[in-house]
Write a structure and sequence with these properties.
2 copies of one chain form a homodimer.
Chain A: H1 2-6, H2 9-13, H3 18-46, H4 50-55, H5 59-67, E1 75-76, H6 79-89, H7 98-120, H8 132-155, H9 164-173, H10 180-206, H11 211-236, H12 263-294, H13 301-317, E2 324-325, H14 327-335, H15 342-358, H16 367-379, H17 385-393, H18 395-411, H19 413-433, E3 437-442, E4 449-451, E5 463-468, H20 474-490, E6 496-500, H21 509-524, E7 528-532, H22 536-544, H23 547-550, E8 555-556, H24 559-570
Parallel strand pairs in A: 5-6, 6-7, 7-8
Antiparallel strand pairs in A: 1-2, 3-4, 3-5
Helix pairs in contact in A: 3-6, 3-11, 3-14, 3-15, 3-16, 5-13, 5-15, 6-12, 7-12, 7-13, 8-9, 8-16, 8-18, 8-19, 10-11, 10-16, 12-14, 17-18, 18-19, 19-20, 20-21
């Protein structure tokens, strides 16, 4: 039972049949065709040699198939994680050096280790710190950064930088070195890919193609762009006229590699690795959950951590770099009919064949084509509607998304997403720091108590009843102290304060001490403090403290009892019958 | 009106009379006598020349009297803030250099500026991030660190370090240089001061002294120790036998000084300044609130920020260092009958006279006596009962206090208190990340719904009703997604899910998107999603989103309506009449 939890393959593997096999094979062929140019392109985005992208799509897919719980998720390099990788490694090594590739392995290793640790400790909840608006804002800003960073390949110039101002400044400075043949290739490829994405499918349908064929053509579009531009470079010798090409890629299966494990390297990459893990996990889980729901299946987020962790550790030892479950490839996999994770394994086989046999064919592939592939892919991530949606819905979410977008663009991905998390938490705590507290009175002729400002209720100048509409904890404990003190100092005739705890689910130690302070201060003023409608678990807790021993008043089961008791005692108001 | 808010002196100043004056004068004399040795000692603890402690007690007191709202708070150097000052400045300058004193001024200036900023922006709530257990743990650990750091003066050796292991290691290494005359003076002074604190008052009462006289004698104890040890050094020439003494202190009013404002210095001291501000503010406000309550007065925390901010800026320009409202001096001030903040101003005059006239008298005062004063004062701060109390009351508070104590002792004050804050917030978020969700059914013959696991209630295999007992926000949004998905995939016969929102006070944008995802996934499974008992403000919010447009079900005013409607529709259960 436990083994099955950690090895989901034991679940679907034993019922695997011919039908599932043929479905999986079809899906694998389609995904493989789509992944070849995509893998090369994302490796370019990460600043790594092109083969790293293919290697990162082989072992990780197989490991995820063994350990992962989603039946349709396709694991491999994705745009945002590639950008994060480039940003993290750029701080410890120079692009193109051996140290850079080793750092990428280390990053994948640390990220995999962190994910597995979270999975084993069942700490997947930590991913929730990334709120939806922060993720949406971060992905939009990342899409813009990625597209901007690829412009250099379209222009055939060089430009570095991890923030939008840096990238734009460098593009501007090096604009004079623009290679116009590259520009022509790049612009045509970009235009073509946009057209494939938007216009090809409707056109083919009008020409009488079946939806499946039209879909397939759309997915093969990048391959067509790759073939045409590669042939152009080869036939016209454009590489000798300054068009930058992929060049020679080793013809080999994924090599066995060792991530660098020096303490300095680990220290420099640990925080980025955690960030990459969490962002990759959140993206992956939401894709997996959406696809699973369509077939009334379930995924186990803690086991997903283990699956993705294994995939990243696999990438670290086979010449790859950090990977996660990609949105577009998973949807393609699902739509193509993948029935089990075995589809992923067949994709891995397809990519392994490509790595051994097809790599010489991409020698003349221009970088501009890969950049076009990336730009077209990531611009679909850019979606500013989150600003409008949060603006309409909630001011604090709007602030969080705005801060995330601006800081990601201006200060880089790491500061951007970290600020988003911090500001979301602060805004949430701020909201709960001033809980709603209503002063209530008795609805005549009933035993109900309502807000004195909204209803016509009985009150007594000697008695103040405050209904607290939130759990009490350290962030709002002092607020209650101040509120009670300010209310009681308003009128010298007050003799009793009743705190009505019907909506208080928790009283932490700070709140307990605040209640003790309120009790002490009210005692000093000669005012009684009573509690009413305290929930069972809260009362059990309070009984373990000494608040109830020193309470200058009583604990009442119901607010009505409390009211009757204190108004009787003070003897000024007729008891309500 | 507004001017009065910012200048509380306009409030009490216009009713100031002879009675208040004589009360304030008496309090001022008592506090001044107590403050002279204390100020010298805390300056020593902060690593500053002794006069800095006196200067820091003059201008700040006057400024607080003008801007502060508490009538009894006495502002000046305190032990914990002195320790924090030493720790912060130790990182940018060498003790005894001019740069060290200038950095102390900068720290006071930044701290004052930050407090004023918080006050003007009315952001006093940020201080709540320091939960009571974290403060208690921090103060206990700081007391130990302070006492340990003063041992070198008792032994007459030198030792640096900002963590307990560092201090102990240095004491151990330099033990060979112990000056035995210093040890004798130090141990006698410490023993005498402990006896004054514990045994003098009962003794004098037994000997027939009035409580006031006994109290006064207790407070004058440190002065006696100062006088006796100073005379001993002078008469026997002990300073020539290796006893370290205070030496010459300039005879002057507080000088006009300028804090260093170089960007490097500001960058290095900004975080410590914020920490000092917040810790000082929290301590000060809780003392002020306790004393105000005794006379049914109120303090305004946001105005307190301005008062303390002004005091610190005053310290920065008059040769002082960071100050705050001290516990012991405030209580003494209050007990001695201080009626208005004017008492503080008279204390300032007393100290100014001391600074001009009395400083030559402390030339032969041994550092060991000052160290004894500090040790006796801070050991009263050490109180491990917080461990027991939180252990009994709540596991998460116990973890927070333990982490704070250990990290403060082992890693220093700044890391200690910062970790305490972070861990408190994380534990709180963790607690709300898995809200209580009860599956409920209809109590037969009523319109009430109760937990199906605790009560004998009607259920329907086609309908799942989940009552959510917490507001929904980004930290717990995905929890709900997973819970619903896991519940629905359990039984294929489920046709309706009702979410009962009676205890949901907020639905943030992330939770909204989770509800949309739940709705979409349930739609894919052919299951309806309904909401019931949604509170007015929450429903208003939801109406601004498009969730309700796409909801695959309805929103019901009451759970009973929802139940009747879906059980009617599914047509399998007889409608409850």
């Amino acid at each position: 039972m436990n083994l099955r939890r950690y090895l989901p393959i034991l679940d679907w593997g034993r019922t695997y049949d011919r039908g599932a096999f043929s479905n999986d094979m079809v899906a694998a062929v389609i995904v493989t065709i789509m992944l070849i140019p995509q893998s090369l392109a994302y490796a370019l985005l990460a600043g790594l040699p092109p083969e790293a992208g293919i290697y990162a799509s082989i072992a990780p897919i197989i490991l995820y198939a063994i350990f992962g719980t989603s039946r349709a998720l396709a694991v491999g390099p994705v745009a945002v994680v590639s950008l994060l990788t480039a940003s993290a490694i750029g701080q410890v090594a120079e692009q193109g050096t051996a140290g850079y590739a080793v750092a990428a392995l280390t990053l994948a290793f640390l990220s995999g280790g962190f994910l597995m640790l979270l999975g084993v400790l069942r700490l997947g909840f930590l991913a929730n710190f990334l709120s939806h608006p922060v993720i949406a804002g971060f992905i939009t800003a990342s899409g813009i950064l990625i597209a901007a960073s690829q412009f250099k390949h379209i222009l055939g110039i060089s430009a570095q930088g991890h923030t939008l101002p840096e990238i734009l400044m460098q593009l501007w400075e090096n604009l004079g070195q623009t290679n116009w043949i590259t520009v022509v290739l790049g612009v045509l490829a970009t235009g073509f890919l946009f057209w494939v994405r938007k216009g090809l499918k409707p056109l083919m349908r009008r020409l009488g193609a079946t939806p499946t064929v039209a879909d397939f053509a759309t997915k093969a579009g990048p391959v067509a762009a790759v073939v045409v531009t590669t042939l152009s470079v080869w036939l016209f010798g454009l590489d000798e006229r300054g068009v930058k090409i992929v060049g020679s890629v080793p013809q080999s299966l994924p090599p066995l590699t060792m991530p660098g494990l020096s303490p300095d390297l680990i220290q420099a990459l640990l925080i980025p690795a955690i960030l990459i893990s969490v962002i990759g996990f959140v993206e992956s889980v939401s894709v997996a959950q959406t696809l699973a729901a369509k077939k009334r299946q379930r995924i186990d987020p803690d086991q997903e951590l283990i699956g993705l962790g294994a995939a990243n550790i696999g990438a670290a030892f086979t010449g790859g770099y950090p990977v996660t479950g990609g949105f577009s490839r998973s949807v393609v996999n699902y739509d193509a009919g993948a029935a089990t994770p075995a589809a992923g394994a067949y994709t891995a086989v397809g990519l392994a064949i490509a790595a051994m046999a097809l790599t010489p064919l991409v020698y003349f592939l221009p970088n501009a084509t890969l950049a076009a592939t990336i730009i077209v892919a990531v611009l679909s991530l850019v979606d500013f509607s989150i600003l409008k949606k949060t603006w309409d819905y909630s001011a604090s979410d709007f602030v969080a998304v705005t801060v995330t977008i601006l800081l990601t663009l201006l200060m880089g991905v790491e500061i951007g997403v970290a600020s988003g998390v911090v500001i979301s938490v602060l805004l949430h705590l701020y909201k709960t720091s001033r809980p709603h507290v209503a002063e209530v009175g008795l609805v005549p002729g009933t035993q109900h108590f309502r807000n004195i400002h909204r209803h016509d209720v009985e009150t007594d100048p000697k008695v103040v009843t405050l209904r607290v509409d939130e759990s009490l904890y350290f962030i709002n404990a002092r607020f209650l102290e101040e509120l009670v003190q300010s209310r009681v100092t308003e009128g010298c005739e007050i003799e009793h304060v009743i705190l009505m705890f019907s909506a208080v689910n928790e009283v932490d130690f700070s709140a307990l001490e605040s209640l003790e302070a309120i009790n002490l201060r009210l005692s000093d003023m000669g005012v009684g403090l009573h509690l009413s409608e305290v929930k069972g678990p809260v009362l059990d807790r309070l009984r373990q403290s000494h608040l109830l021993d020193v309470l200058n008043g009583q604990v009442f089961l119901s607010q009505y009892d409390a009211w009757r008791s204190v108004t009787d005692t003070s003897g000024q108001t007729a008891p309500t019958s």
